[in-house]
Design goal:
The complex is a heterodimer of chains A (114) and B (408). Chain A has 114 residues and is of the alpha+beta class. Chain A has a single domain (3-108), classed as SH3 type barrels (Roll). Helices cover 25% and strands 30% of the residues of chain A. Chain A has 3 helices and 7 strands. In chain A, strands 2-1-7-6 form a 4-stranded mixed sheet, with no helix packed on it. A 3-stranded antiparallel sheet of chain A has the order 3-4-5, with no helix packed on it. In chain A, strand 3 (30-36) and strand 4 form a beta hairpin. Chain B has 408 residues and is mostly helical. Chain B has a single domain, classed as Amino acid/polyamine transporter I, CATH 1.20.1740. In chain B, 79% of the residues lie in helices and 0% in strands. Chain B is globular. The chains are: A alpha+beta (114), B mainly alpha (408). Chain A binds chain B through residues 10-11, 13-17, 23-27, 29, 49-50, 54, 57-61, 64, 84-85, 98, 100-101, 104-105, 107-109, 111, 113-114, and chain B through 63-65, 69, 72-73, 76-78, 80-82, 130-131, 297-304, 309-315, 317-318, 367-368.
Chain lengths: 114, 408
């Protein structure tokens, strides 16, 4: 295992996704890797968030995936910065992220003081 | 002034988190059963929570990430999800125990039917949580919880044999009922090192926007806040040892510790003890419901935080409301809150290693923490505590079964 592969696992996978407005909008639940030529190298092309992205994450992941919908695919080109969190270049809604919070907000905002 | 207000975060954690129903039950039962002999275990518990809360506050200040984010990052989705389930079960049980405690104390203060007071207590806690800002919740429960200091006054008025008290701080093992002794030792450690305290503390630090400049306040908060909690735990155990042990009273009722305060300080002592207990368990009920909501939101990457309006972190809000409603349902079955407390503390001990290991790993990670990573002292103490936590975690359930929950 190379150092860069180790960094991907520790430094990107399972990190919080934050949109350009500072909104928490999911986690990096899986990564889509595309092979580069015949040398065995690959590059990250997409972040998968939520839903069936958990399929490959063990027994609990399969259980959660079975109870959820499709994952949201975010192109790696939308990533602005990778640090303690993964910051995105655009707003969550434009990338179809954070939809669960949007739906829940419509319900919660019916109550006084919300 | 700002620094003083920030210490309120520690005071809330200390009173509502450290001295919660778990401490009231285990410290009083331990004192009534073994006298001063288990005081040294409380010292170990207090020192452990100081070390780990300082670590998770420092990690939150430097990385802006709370504990459950780190758990998932470090142990992955599968083990993280297992930890989430364990943490949520323990949070819910603890919240149910605290809610039951609120109803019992209200009953002692007012005398209305128990089940009516459970509903009234939960509704009051939910309204307070929904309407009041974070700072006001901290102050309301933190400062009224300080009424528990009446137990410290009671210790002085009871004139215990100070030589025997001092001897209790020297590690020793009871020559009789060894298994029961170890069961209470595990329970006292579990009551001191409850995982929800670190979830709440680190999430609160992120909500307060802590940064490098707040590292000093983090140190003061963890030492003063949890130190105060430990001081109250000693008082509870000493009062029980002096008042209940010689009379052969087995404190199986939550109101019993307050009788100890009354014995020493009179009717005002009883009143102060009950008010302190009400705000301590009420504050802890809010903390546990928040901890459960924080964990879920952080694990799945939702918006979270009490500093936002409920509509700004909607799934987080729904989560804490659901935890309160489920806790209400559990206590309404009529199951004894003291028994729920015992189970919740013992099960929380089982979940401790998966909570504390990621904190230790990240606090020691130079890539995350830079020059604020653990020093040699923090590492040695942190690793030593982790070994203790692991041993305690493995022995908790066998001890509970072998001793029939401390009954021998």
């Amino acid at each position: 295992m190379t150092e860069s592969e180790l960094d991907l696992g520790l430094g990107v996978l399972d990190h919080q996704l934050v949109d350009c407005n500072g909104r928490n909008c999911g986690n990096v639940d899986d990564l889509e890797l595309t092979p580069l030529g015949d040398h065995g190298d690959s590059e990250v092309t997409e972040i998968l968030a939520g839903g069936n992205a958990w399929r490959g994450r063990g027994w609990f992941g399969r259980l959660c995936a079975a109870l959820s919908g499709d994952a949201v695919h975010v192109p790696w080109s939308e990533v602005a910065e990778v640090g303690a969190v993964v910051t995105l270049k655009r707003a969550a809604q434009e990338l179809r992220l954070g939809l669960g919070d949007d739906r829940a907000a419509r319900f919660v905002k019916r109550f006084p003081g919300a | 002034m700002k620094g003083f207000l920030q210490i309120a975060l520690g005071i809330l954690s200390a009173i509502g988190g450290f001295v919660d129903i778990g401490d009231l039950v285990f410290n009083t039962q331990a004192g009534a059963t073994f006298g001063f002999q288990l005081l040294w275990v409380v010292v170990i518990g207090v020192f452990g929570i100081v070390v780990y809360s300082e670590m998770c506050g420092r990690v939150a200040a430097i990385s802006q990430r709370p504990v459950f984010d780190l758990i998932r990052e470090r142990v992955g989705f599968g083990a993280g999800f297992g930890t989430l389930i364990a943490a949520e079960v323990v949070n819910l049980m603890t919240c149910a125990a605290e809610v039951g405690g609120v109803a019992i104390v209200l009953q002692l203060l007012g005398g209305a039917p128990y089940r009516v007071l459970i509903v009234a207590g939960v509704v009051a806690l939910m309204v307070i949580t929904w309407t009041l800002p974070f700072e006001w919740i901290e102050r309301l429960f933190g400062y009224f919880g300080l009424c528990l200091l009446v137990f410290a006054v009671a210790v002085i008025k009871l004139h215990p044999h100070w030589g025997s008290v001092a001897h209790g701080f020297v590690p020793s093992i009871s020559s009789t009922n060894k298994l029961v002794f170890f069961y209470f030792a595990v329970g006292l450690l579990g009551a001191a090192l409850t995982p929800y305290e670190v979830y709440f503390y680190s999430s609160g630090a992120v909500e307060d926007g802590w940064g490098v400049k707040d590292l000093r306040i983090n140190k003061i908060t963890s030492i003063v806040g949890y130190g105060l909690g430990g001081f109250l735990s000693f008082s509870l155990m000493i009062v029980a040892a002096v008042v209940f042990l010689p009379r052969g009273i087995d404190p199986q009722f939550l109101g019993t510790p307050a009788v100890g305060a009354m014995d020493a300080v009179g009717k005002y002592g009883l009143l102060l003890a009950l008010v302190g207990m009400l705000f301590a368990v009420g504050g802890a009920a809010i903390e546990t419901s928040f901890s459960g909501a924080y964990n879920l939101a952080q694990f799945f990457g939702w918006e979270w935080g009490k500093r936002r309006r409920p509509g700004g972190a909607p799934r987080f809000t729904i989560a804490w409301v659901v935890i309160f409603v489920l806790a209400l349902g559990i206590v309404m079955t009529g199951y004894d809150p003291v028994k729920i407390t015992e189970y919740s503390v013992i099960f929380s001990v089982v979940a401790l290693p998966l909570t504390f290991l990621p904190i230790l790993l990240v606090a020691n990670d130079a890539a995350y923490m830079g020059r604020h990573r653990n020093g040699r002292f923090s590492n040695v103490v942190g690793i030593a505590y982790f070994v203790v936590i692991l041993a305690v975690s493995l022995s908790a359930i066998p001890l509970m079964l072998l001793t029939h929950g401390g009954q021998g």
